[in-house]
Each structure stands twice: as structure tokens, then as C-alpha cells.
Amino acid sequence: MLFVGRERNPAEDVAVAQRLKNLGFVVTNIEDRDVTIDEVKGYDLIYISQTTNSKYLKDGFMKEVAIPTVYVKNHGMYYLGLSSVEENTTVMNSKSIEIVDSKHKVAGGLSGKVDVFKEAGDKFGVSYGVPGKEAKIIATVPGDKKKAALYYYDKGTKADNGYTTKARVSFFYWSNGMHENSTDASWKLLDNLVLWTLQNG
After folding, report:
1. Strand locations in 74-190, DSSP E?
2. Nearest CA to 65 among 173, 188, 163?
3. Distance of alpha carbon 173 from alpha carbon 190, whole angstroms
4. pTM above 0.70, yes or no
5. Chain centre to alpha carbon of residue 189
6. Contact (CB, 8 A) for 127 and 89
7. How far apart are CA 89 and CA 142, in angstroms?
8. Please, are residues 187 and 19 in contact by the beta-carbon 8 Å criterion?
9. What's phi and psi for 166, nearest 5 deg?
10. What are 97-139's pLDDT values in tens digits?
11. CB neighbours of residue 172 within 10 Å
């Protein structure tokens, strides 16, 4: 796995990378400013951390990458045309998501409203995207079905702008600094989404 994050390897990236190693991945870290289409070659999975500076994704080079990718950064989905909103995509003072596809493997048996953070606060919350019609939505922001907190596009499906995905591309709802505030359910959802994304390269 290639793990993309901000320089100096923030504590949250260290914690998540260790979690992914525990799942069995060999994790290679790269700073966001160094990511290019050549640098991502040869990996089975790419993880774009929420610490990534979005300016390094803005040119859309990831459209040409045929490697399953997990975005914990809505901007990355927006630049691919997989979400129709770019900025202000975190619902603050929220600690829950709404599982809308409880039968999906990523849901792992969870259903309805699930607390994914231990506490709510005015500086963090549930991030979301507004995906197109070919996306598969697993969970939303409670009370707003248009705001998808967990969703993905399978390989070969189309964004509303016509872009066709070359591998599965998924989104996870974390905002910055959430590793210490996440519930066991939240971590398990991350595990499940990462493994699910890997299967559709």
C-alpha cells in the first residue's frame, strides 16, 4: 500500500498506518508533495489521508491511475468528478453516521445510526461527499441522504462528468485528528472499506 499524507508524518497518519499494517499491508509512506503518476506505480492500493494538502491532487492526475484508492479527503473525489462538492464538506458537532446499506460487507452487520466518534465538537465532525448516480452509498450523514459518509465507485463505473473509474475508488468520512476520538465501530468500518476497495483493481 502507498500511504499519502502530509510532510513530517503526523501522529494520526502514524496511527492509521499502523492499523493498516496490522491488517497485513506492507505500507510505504510518501509525502503529498512528492506524489506523481510514476510514484504510485506498482502498488496494490493507495490510501489518501485526510492530512493530504488538496493542492497536490488538484491537477487530476489520479484519473489515469488504475489502482484501487481510498480517499479520506473529499477534495480528491471532487477532482475526479466523483463528488459534486469541493469545500466545507464536514458536518461539525456530529459523532454519528447513518448506515443505509446494512447488508453490505463494509457495514459489517452495523445498521441505522452508529456512533463513530466518542465525542462531538465544533472543530471536527463527519466529512462527506455528494456522489453521482453510479456511486454505491453505504452510509450518510444522519438526516441528509445526499451527504454520503461512506461510498464508492466500482471499476468501470462513470462519474457524472463522464470519467470512467479504472479501479474501485472509495471515500471514508474522517476529518483531521479523528484517530484518538474514533470508536471501535469506526475503526472496523475503516478496516472493512480498505479491504473491500482492494478487491476491485
Report:
1. 90-92, 96-99, 112-115, 125-127, 136-141, 144-153, 169-171
2. 163
3. 9
4. yes
5. 11
6. yes
7. 14
8. yes
9. -95, -10
10. 999 999 999 999 999 999 999 999 888 899 999 999 999 999 9
11. 25
